[in-house]
Amino acid sequence: MAYIDTNILISYYFDEDENHEYSVKIVEKLRSKHKQMYVSLLTIVELFSVISRKIQQLKLPPHIMQLDEKARIHIIVKQILELLNPAVISDEPELSSINGFRGFHVFAKAVNLAYQLKLRTLDLLHIAYALDLASKGLVDSIVSLDKEIQEKEPMLQKLGLKVYR
User: Fold this and answer.
1) Contact 46, 13 (CB under 8 A)
2) What does pLDDT average to over the chain?
3) What is the pLDDT of residue 62?
4) Which residue of 52, 58, 83, 162 is 20 to 30 Å from 13, comparing CA positions?
5) What is the pLDDT of residues 108-154, one digit of tens each?
6) How far from 66 is each of 16, 63, 113, CA to CA, in Å?
7) What is the structure's pLDDT at 144?
8) What order of strands is seen across the sheet that includes strand 2-4?
9) In sequence order, what DSSP letters do the residues of 3-14 get, joined into one string?
């Protein structure tokens, strides 16, 4: 059971991605062990963001190129999710205190992790989502191509999350 970072999804889908072969090996290894893959809504938002920014450079089939840009982006995201078939975890409406303010509980978890992990915001949020899923017994690891996340493996293991390689 693994939380999948956005970069794995993208590199798995696009053959021309420099990390494609590595991502294929990881995904196939997870599948061979019958491990469910999970993503958060943050992952979906990040997929739309990355594809939107890179849509002009991507090699797309002619039948997709004929569509308007918004339709192309939606189709690519849909195809990525269908290809990898991860479970998409919905956000819980649970609120927590964040420095005296009420906010989404995963953001509070990220705030509490920030001083330890010192990661960029999206990486920190992915880890907060993965740890939230781990606390529910849904995942035991995170899969990411980010070197910064991989370097935090000892700390993440102490928090109960393996970094899958």
Assistant:
1) no
2) 94
3) 87
4) 162
5) 999 999 999 999 999 999 999 999 999 999 999 999 999 999 999 99
6) 21, 6, 45
7) 97
8) 87-89, 37-40, 2-4, 141-143, 162-164
9) EE-HHHHHHHH-
Domain ranges of the chain: 2-89, 95-164
* HSE, side-chain direction, 13 A CA sphere, residue 42: 21
- Residues 75-87, mean pLDDT to the nearest whole number: 96
Q: Is the pTM of this model over 0.85?
A: yes
Neighbours of 22 (CB within 10 A): 15
Helix/strand/coil for 137 = coil
Give a three-class secondary structure readout of the chain.
CEEECHHHHHHHHCCCCCCHHHHHHHHHHHHHCCCCEEEEHHHHHHHHHHHHHHCCCCCCCHHHHCCCHHHHHHHHHHHHHHHHCCEEECCCCCEEEECCEEEEHHHHHHHHHHHHHCCCHHHHHHHHHHHHHHHCCCCCEEECCCHHHHHCHHHHHHCCCEEEC
Q: Is the pLDDT of residue 61 over 90?
A: no
What helix, strand, coil percent values describe the chain, rounded to 5? 55, 15, 30
pLDDT digit string (tens) for 27-39?
A: 999 999 988 999 9
Q: Which pLDDT band, with edges at 50, 70 and 90, does 103 fall under?
A: confident
